[in-house]
Amino acid sequence: MSAAVAEVLGLGGYALALAAGAAALCASLVTRRRRWLIAVALGAAALGVAVPVGGIPLAGYPRGMSGDLSITTLALLTAALSAMLAGRPLLERPEWRGLCELAAACGVVGYPLTLGLTVLDPYELGYRPCGLVLVVAGLVVAWWWRRRGAALVLASGVAAFDLRLLESSNLWDYLLDMPLALCSVGIVAARAVTWRRAPIALRAPAPATRRSPERQS
Amino acid sequence: MLASTITTVKARPSLRLPGASRGRLGYLLLAAVLGAVFLPALLAAWPAEPPRRFAAPAPVADGGVSAVYQERFIEPSPAMATLHTPALVALPGGDLLAVWKVGESGERGPIALRAATLAPGAAAWSGSRLLTSSHKSQRELGRVVRTLANPVALAEPDGTVRLFYVTAWAKWSTSALATKTSRDAGRTWSAARRIVAHPVGNLATMVKMAPVRFADGTVGLPGYHEFFGVFPQLLRISPEGALLDKARMGAGQTALQPSIVPLDDRRAVALLRNALKGRVLLTRTRDGGITWDPVQPSALPNPNAPVMGLRLRDGAILAVFNNSPVSRDALSLAVSRDGGGRWHVLHSFESGERTPDGVPVNFSYPYVVQAGDGVIHLVYVWRQHRVKHVAFNEVWLSERAR
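YS: structure for the whole thing
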């Protein structure tokens, strides 16, 4: 795939992250928020992509420091923005939780190995990824009925790898990135801490606040 | 309350199939996803790779019947900035192309890569020209770049020159690889392109020594990782410049900057810089670089400095190295005729010079290639501000061995 597509996805990913971050920040400050949030998100995205600093877009700085974002992260950012700006959650809570737990587990186990903890390097499996594709396919099948959104997010990562939409030729980079792994570890750890501190009566899984139409019928 | 909550919920654009379609339609959709997405990925990755083989060495002439030994500097006067990591590549037309790094953090002026050429038979190098700078690489890559380092180059049979180099935005642990190509013998270069080689922010992958060729047309780029661990690795690059795979050549905290010397189509030996000082490290492969033996110390001393090897026509291995376990003030040439087991020091290019204050003078970053005419070319940084070029042939080596 052309370098232009990789460039658009690379820059667009951080513009999306900037938009989501700005929208989330403003959502907590503004009450009549929908129009405000859209304007804020668009402005932040434009700032990331269009404002040159030192001859490169502002988004080029995080891009240079932590690499391009994975397709999984792009999908999660899109889902977050959709929920904040349009009020349409593309992913339900169990789907978010499943993806976060998966990303956290892969980051905690995989990243120390890639940094040289042992002679094994799971990243090497991502270049000719027969085994990795089979594992992801198994997860997609396992999640298909109860966490279809998460399954489709994983499948979109593999589809992007088929087309080599990112700069990388390694499947891992389509499924996971460092910011996603760090955020997921933080979320999973925070959930674990709050769950331990909660009274036993409140440790049940959080009830779904929103129901899809099919469940109402 | 509950009713009002439910009525405010809008229908999802629906990743979940409505009602009864959770049955047959769900299975159909799942089959479509598996068939359209996962099957192509499996088919693309499935074909078994044929045994990997190093390419046969390019034909090399005998280098003349009488001994040749010449010394010169690439630039006539010392640079104001510190120079680093010169590299050479013999071009198909007979020219020699040298690239090196100028400047470092804290010095005035940009950090840049410069290049110069030496025409066949010419007495002096061309004037050096800017190849790229940190600012230019930052613009071309669209990412923050503060410094550059370690250029290495390779000439394709069609004349295309490929350059690989390191960019970093802070310390060397923030390094990433970039590549450029030239189709006019190094006069003009394509925009830089990033090579993604590590999942943690693409950090900490570097190159230093000469690429090797595989029989299938791919290129083996000897690299190393320098972050929590310090270990060598071999990156395989496609003719289009994509990273195909990589293999660790060692583990731990000590071995870096591998210089790979193919011995035949399957076997190779790699000489490695020792981060702990002491002795040059060595590892071997018998399967074309897919797996490597545990790293062992060799007989050559090493002061935590790069060492470079070269296979000669008769199968001997030539190594240029800092001949001291503690400092870079001596630079010597040694030859091994048993694949790296025993070494015979044949010549000292520099031998233990010191400043009037008693500080060892620095001669470092040797890089050696053999051109098509058989002449062996060595470049290294001389007293930190000049790049010295030494040319000699195998007749001269034979005379030193007597």
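YS: worth flagging: Residues 126 and 132 of chain A are 7 Å apart (CA to CA).
IM: good catch. Also The first strand of chain A starts at residue 52 and ends at 53.
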